[in-house]
Design goal:
The complex is a heterodimer of chains A (403) and B (422). In chain A, helix 2 packs across helix 5 and helix 9 runs parallel beside helix 10. The radius of gyration of chain A is 20 Å and the shape is globular. Chain A has 2 domains: 242 residues, Peroxisomal Thiolase, Chain A, domain 1; 144 residues, Peroxisomal Thiolase, Chain A, domain 1. Chain A is an alpha/beta fold and 403 residues long. By secondary structure, chain B is an alpha/beta fold. Chain B folds into 2 domains: 250 residues, Thiolase/Chalcone synthase (Peroxisomal Thiolase, Chain A, domain 1); 151 residues, Peroxisomal Thiolase, Chain A, domain 1, CATH 3.40.47. Chain B contains 13 helices and 16 strands. The two termini of chain B are 20 Å apart. The mean pLDDT of chain B is 97. Classes of the chains: A alpha/beta (403), B alpha/beta (422). At the A-B interface, helix 3, helix 4, helix 5, strand 6 and helix 6 of A face helix 4, helix 5, helix 6, strand 6 and helix 7 of B. Strand 6 of chain A pairs antiparallel with strand 6 of chain B, so a sheet runs across the interface.
Amino acid sequence: MKPSTVVTGIGVTAPNGLGTKAYWAATLEATSGIDRITRFDPSRYPARFAGEVPGFVAKEHLSSRLLPQTDHMTRLALVAADWAFADAGVQPDQLDGYDMSVVTASSAGGFEFGERELQALWSKGSKYVSAYQSFAWFYAVNTGQISIRNGMQGPSAALVSDHAGGLDAIGQARRQIRKGTPLALTGGVDGSISPYGWISHLASGRISTAETPDRAYLPFDAAASGYVPGEGGALFVLEEANAARKRGAEIYGEIAGYASTFDPRPGSGRPPALKRAITLALQDAGMAPQDIDVVFADAVAVPELDRLEAEAITEVFGPRGVPVTAPKTMTGRLYAGAAPLDVAAALLAIRDGVLPPTVHIEPDDGYQLDVVTGIRTTPPRSALVIARGYGGFNSAVVVRSAR
Amino acid sequence: MTRREVAITGIGVVSPGGIGVPEFWSLLTEGRTATRLVTSFDPAQFRSRIAAEADFDPAEHGLGPQEIQRMDRAAQFGVVTAREAVRRSGLDVSTVDPGRIAVSVGSAIGASIGLEEEYRVASDDGKLDLLDENYASKHLYNFFVPSSIVAEVAWAVGAEGHATMVSDGCTSGVDAVGYGCELIREGSADVVIAGGTDAPITPITLACFDAIKATTPRNDDPEHASRPFDASRNGFVLGEGAAMFALEDLEHARQRGAHIHAVISGFAGRCNAYHMTGLKTDGREMAEAIRVAMDEARVNPEDIQYINAHGSGTKQNDRHETAAFKRSLGEQAYRIPVSSIKSMIGHSLGAIGAIEVAASVLALEHDVLPPTANLHTPDPECDLDYIPVTAREQDTDTVLTVASGFGGFQSAMVLTAPGASR
């Protein structure tokens, strides 16, 4: 029997709350963090809303030495990692470096940092490019910086699969725990709310151009017109269950199942692969569909993609067969940070016996989903988290109560 | 229960000086170098103006006009090498459940050429702070998220299993192969298309390595500019390329009568948790990765017959790595031939780790060890047998290949000949 992997610490930086407590309180109160972009003037663009993390002052958390060498999203990640360790009651400097792995997900790296250096190069010349560009922008930056800050020397990685990567990172961290690394820090904190990042998001053709923030991100609603990008995410401390219990750690829940699939080539006529990812994740957890108490949907809010997701869910669980929610309607989609934030919400939902809501939407009956549009107090013991990435990535994680 | 073993049954390579496996292997065994002054743009403003460029025409390798337009050069390399790997494996993918085929692509910096070109246009060479989306390509999102490269590879080979990009800086290539092995061993895939690709020869990449003086300024002698382990070396030469492999469950491969190039018998990665670009001289974490990879492969230092080194040609790397070999292999380190193919094809960041796996596999198969070109006067602190200048024939059953990357990543893989008896 494979050792079981549990979550003992959570660190959150989210657009509707900095820190796990603030995020969760806002989520249960249905408070959205989506608003007009403040990081640059968005007036000239067709889309002007994003989920920005509020009240984050990097120098309150990080040394002045780190600031010039880190992108905004890396700073958020370093702080989320600190909080995850503190929450787990683990002092990384007390552990052997080889006993700790870091596996994070990224979508586009430290993009705002890279944009600034591209501007320096092309407007002023190569001598103006920062000595930190070689690593502040690349996709492995958060893994490397978290490893250095916390002395973590175990098998580590950064994975990139667009919005699905956060779950793939959790899956890979669980592999390392199963292979014998006692602790892994994993998840994703991401963000690219900068002008070049913005026109890149726009090029996906999936960004909402709605005129008000509460109409901008409406998954499974007949008025769905695309999504809102956001920044932030969540990081977790994972440990082998027995070791965690032995040290008296508080356990949020178990990473019980994980699977990932890729959609067939466009035009191949073959069926999409999301349903298979869900089924395989359930199998991996040794659970049946009726054992799942709530589904955290990927919820792109592009009608065709909502339809595909609704079909996969109803094929596995039956029409309106399971409560489905998308608290990301309060944060926007956080790219590699999106699914980890959903995993955090799922674990907190299990802890507190509530289902967090999907806000602003009126579910389209055609999807045949039981969407949680207001907070519900049916205590969940398990949850399925779904994430998809541009191009055809499908990943699914099952979390369940460890009690 | 015996563990599932992982066979390499197909190889594809795009390398400077050698597109396709035979050309790549000729270059290495003849000890020729593919380093030269940058031709893809004017490098006049840079401190280091040298690179190892691949003379690669995507149309010649079967990519259509639409594929060429939507794919960055790194994606083109990835697709062409993935197709070559599948072709050479003799695997009829239509006989395999697509859901059992996974894809694991390593890349350090993804679609950097596409990103920089689009930036230049949309910002009007940096004049606009607020970039003009009307001047951006419809395919910009493909350059923005490098996972688009993974999608292209999956489509090219018809994979519908797990697919992801492993981006661990300069260990990405070997780490992606190691990640693919793990998928087969745990039983979540039967076939994995795994490898690495990068096309980093762009102004912004030259500028960022100039800024930390990591690349060599030997602009007056580009053909001999990459000099790992030589006393006169003064930085690495940027390269580009890709290598992809068809990995299969060994039993699956045997049952279909596949030609098995090598077995991946051990892989491990560790981090130095020290510095994003710096290395400690003691080589401790790389040594640990080597030790764990040998342990997984059930081999001892006495069994290792060749080491394909990271050998980037920076002073700190060459000394770090030499120390790591001594620390992990003891006295055996002085006996085992070591070489760096970066002396010939440069350092292609997230691709090179996979290209070095390809070189290691070919060394096993052909019993020829590629040399370290341009090595005439060894650094006295690098006192191992680095196979200077000329390839060496040697019966070889067990090879170690290592990689070291920004972010502190240190990786090691042990490859063994399929018939090797231990």
